[in-house]
């Protein structure tokens, strides 16, 4: 999908905020190499690219890339105010090329994303531009990305609508006898059919004893009557990613143990969702959901996190975990995804993507709206 012309102002404003941070740190330029950060600042994330940001000269911003951006719709289109520079050869490193250009322009020191660069790439930058003082940009761009603007949330909302549509159609089809792998592939095809750039992550389908396993890789096990069926999927729309997870029972009235386990996980997920509020400590949101499960005697095998942020990447800050530091802000999208798995029997996972909103605005905004009723399919 191409960006609307007015959206380009957004990218210039984001780069200006980064410029101000770099100026305060005494840097003359910055090299941004992490793909999600490049897309956040420019509107595009072509393969093998780096952004050279001129701290004192906005007109000096250069996107260095191996091929012209925009060749694939899912990459987005760059801000028109950017200068583009293609790399000289097929093996050229865009970060190294950006450092060389910064030295040529006598911009020093240069802040780089050390957490994204390998030691070898960092050394290559220093070697190619001797005398160019390299400092650490740290997570400056990630900090800017933490709170989303309404345009970003709109993209997440559309990604969630696509995801709900794909899941809803699958649930209307015949499931008994089909393999986990087949169902996962069908989900991803349906995401594309409904306008997604692609799946946000590898779709997971777990049946019977595999149900409820976190990050389960689909197998050739076939769906059987009486199985728990857990499904986890997400769509990408204009780079923004959402996630949903649901659990169902196949072909029959749920057994008592299935109803009991489902109700417990549903209660934990609801407690986590209700705890989302601006200013809430991330660890308190985790505790709200986790204590429902531990209070019922489920202490083994629980996921280390109850949820996490989403956006241009599948997993972003904040982490909703027992030892998480920090607090939530308004307009931060997160997942709440507790689950319980009973070895040899199966389990339940329920996952939603929500946006933190103040109570005055109606509280947390639920983006993924597929029913959480325990349906027998």
TrEMBL record:
Residue ranges annotated for the Peptidase M24 domain, each copy included = 155-357
Q: Which Pfam families match?
A: Creatinase_N, Peptidase_M24
Taxonomic source organism = Streptomyces odorifer
Q: What is this protein called?
A: M24 family metallopeptidase
Residue ranges of every copy of the Creatinase N-terminal domain listed in the record: 14-147
Question: Which InterPro entries does the UniProt entry name for this protein?
Answer: Creatin/AminoP/Spt16_N (IPR029149), Creatinase/aminopeptidase-like (IPR036005), Creatinase_N (IPR000587), Pept_M24 (IPR000994), Peptidase_M24B (IPR050659)
